[in-house]
Design goal:
The structure is a single chain. The protein is of the alpha+beta class. The protein folds into 2 domains: 82 residues, Alpha-Beta Plaits (2-Layer Sandwich), CATH 3.30.70; 79 residues, SH3 type barrels (Roll), CATH 2.30.30.30.
């Protein structure tokens, strides 16, 4: 199954775990990245496992299993056609390793402005994203291109390098100054 690409299923909102159960019952390889979230209810605090990419489940299958996969309860569609809508095994591995290593990954809306950076070290090395906050650690928004969904990553600013100097020059200059000041 390793030779088959990861495909993206668009599923009914809040049905991701149910779709994963159906995939597992049919022995189909799947991945649903989850993050821990403490939710305060009226009488207690509850630890929840929420999907990192709400509305999406990743799966691998043979061409002959396509109809069985897209006809599962809760599946709205299979994204893309051919190579479009596929996710590299490297991207899936990064997400898995990042979550396993305790990195704080959270869903995040797409952002149009900011400094474009590349992560230089760690599990997400080579990933590019936009800086949205600078504090003790830098918050970077990374995009999974196949589904146009974003998630945030907190990383040391010394583990980032600035990419594409031509975008948002005024914002970039102030960000570079902060990054430079942060490294000292």
């Amino acid at each position: 199954m390793r030779e088959h690409p990861w495909r993206v299923l668009h599923v009914i909102a809040n049905h991701e775990k149910r779709v994963v159960q159906h995939l597992a019952s049919r022995s189909l390889e799947h991945y649903l990245p989850l993050y821990a979230l403490n939710s305060r209810w009226s009488d207690r605090t509850v630890a929840l496992q929420r999907p990192l990419f709400p509305g999406y489940v990743f799966t691998r299958f043979r061409a002959g299993e396509r109809i069985a996969v897209i006809s599962l309860p809760g599946v709205l569609s299979l994204l893309g056609d051919g190579d479009l809508g596929t996710v590299s095994a490297e991207e899936i591995t990064r997400i898995r390793e990042g979550l396993a290593a305790g990195h704080v990954l959270r869903p995040h809306p797409a952002i149009a402005k900011g400094t474009r950076v590349r992560v230089r070290n760690g599990v997400f090395e080579g990933s590019e994203g936009l800086v949205t906050e600078l504090r003790g650690q830098c918050k970077v928004i990374l995009t999974m291109k196949a589904i146009n969904q974003c998630f945030s990553l907190c990383v040391e600013s010394s583990d980032l390098e600035v990419v594409n100097e031509k975008e948002a020059p005024a914002y970039r200059v102030s960000t570079q100054r902060l990054l430079g000041a942060h490294r000292t």
